[in-house]
Amino acid sequence: MADRETGVIKWYNSGKGYGFITRADGDDLFIHFTALTGSEGELKQGQQVEYDIDEAGAGPMARDVRLL
Q: With left for phi above 0 and alpha for psi between -120 and 50, is residue 34 left, alpha or beta?
């Protein structure tokens, strides 16, 4: 099992149910509301998160996202 990564919410639109995480290497990673674990509530810009990466057909996306 790969190590989990940490990053910061770049932006997240709860109405649309998606956004982006800025990874430690500076790249952005797509996040969909279905990737949130537990009752995280609304994600906000600047929050730190921990996640795994899933290689989806459209490119990498975050999964099993948890607030730190």
A: alpha
Helix/strand/coil (H, E, C) string of 25-52? CCCEEEEEHHHECCCCCCCCCCCEEEEE
Q: Which residues pair with 17 in a beta bridge?
A: none
Cα separation, 5 vs 22, whole angstroms = 11
CB atoms within 10 A of CB 33: 16
Model confidence at 41, pLDDT cuts 50, 70, 90, reads low
Rounded mean pLDDT of 24-39?
A: 89
3-state secondary structure of 35: helix
DSSP state of 15: T
pTM equals: 0.86
Q: How far apart are CA 21 and CA 45, in angstroms?
A: 9
